[in-house]
């Protein structure tokens, strides 16, 4: 039992190691490779024509939101936030302890998988503005 009286297998999608898998690691790796290969084969065979060729879809954003996310201050703020997260993640990866309490894991699970989709739902393409790769590329270029 875990705290709160829940069964121990209730938290099935938590952060764990290879020892926590219910199947042998070799079988998990083979399954992951097979899933990746099948998805790319289906993509190559089924996606014959471009579907994202620039035609606008959906409704336009409100004018105040478009002016906010299109401003130079917005892009500078988002690039700064993105680089701060990148710097913190790099520091945690290099100098942090090799434990599950390392904040790098939480950054991936919380920031990328929960935070970015919610922020993008309300503010548009947040990752395009906050991506540290785009910021480094803009600085080098």
Provide an overview of this structure.
The chain is mostly helical and 141 residues long. It is built from 6 helices and no strands. The protein has helices spanning 25-46, 63-69, 72-95, 103-123, 126-130, 132-140. The relative contact order is 0.08.
Key phrases:
single chain; 141 residues; mainly alpha; 6 helices; extended
Helix proportion: 55-70%
How many beta-strand elements?
0
Average per-residue pLDDT, rounded, comes to 82
Q: Pairing-aware structural class of the strands and helices?
A: mainly alpha
- The shape is extended
Detail the poorly predicted runs. Answer: none
Gyration radius over CA: 20 Å
In terms of DSSP E residues, the strand content is: under 5%
Give the topology string: H per helix, E per strand.
HHHHHH
Total number of helical segments? 6
End-to-end Cα distance: 55 Å
Largest sheet: none
């Amino acid at each position: 039992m875990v705290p709160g009286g829940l069964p121990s297998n209730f938290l099935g999608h938590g952060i764990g190691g290879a020892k926590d898998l219910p199947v042998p690691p070799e079988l998990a790796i083979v399954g992951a490779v097979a899933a990746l290969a099948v998805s790319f084969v289906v993509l190559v065979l089924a996606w014959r024509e471009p579907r994202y060729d620039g035609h606008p879809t959906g409704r336009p954003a409100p004018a105040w939101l478009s002016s906010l996310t299109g401003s130079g201050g917005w892009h500078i703020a988002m690039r700064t936030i993105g680089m701060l997260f990148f710097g913190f993640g790099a520091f945690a990866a290099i100098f942090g302890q090799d434990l599950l309490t390392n904040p790098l894991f939480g950054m991936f699970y919380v920031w990328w998988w929960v935070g970015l989709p919610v922020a993008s739902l309300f503010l548009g393409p947040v990752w395009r503005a906050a991506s540290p790769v785009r910021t480094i590329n803009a600085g080098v270029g």
